[in-house]
Amino acid sequence: MDFQIRDAISQNMSGNSAQDIREVVEDAIARGEEHLLPGLGVFFEKWWNAASEPEKDTVLKKLETQFH
């Protein structure tokens, strides 16, 4: 099966507003279903690739705190 999750997520989210994206993220987290985690990973990857180094450092520090 030649299914690219990155491409599918990107296509499905194309044109969505910030509020739409928030709702998708919050719904995925609220459901807590394992099969939704790759989609959230795609969101994080897109953000990471566009983030500045200071933004990345801030998020990494927050994640460090959460996993401590």
Strand content: under 5%
> What is the count of distinct domains?
1
Mean pLDDT: 93
State the shape: globular
Number of strands: 0
Structural class by helix and strand composition: mainly alpha
Helicity, as a percent range = over 70%
Number of helices: 4
Q: How big is the Rg? A: 13 Å
Main beta sheet, described? Answer: none
Q: Give the termini separation.
A: 38 Å
Main location: other
Keywords: Sporulation
Subcellular location: Spore core
InterPro entries: SspI (IPR017525)
Can you put this structure into words, describing what you see?
This protein is mostly helical and 68 residues long. The protein has helices spanning 5-13, 18-31, 37-50, 53-66. Helix 1 (5-13) crosses helix 3. It is globular, with a radius of gyration of 13 Å. It starts with a helix and ends with a helix. Keywords: Sporulation.
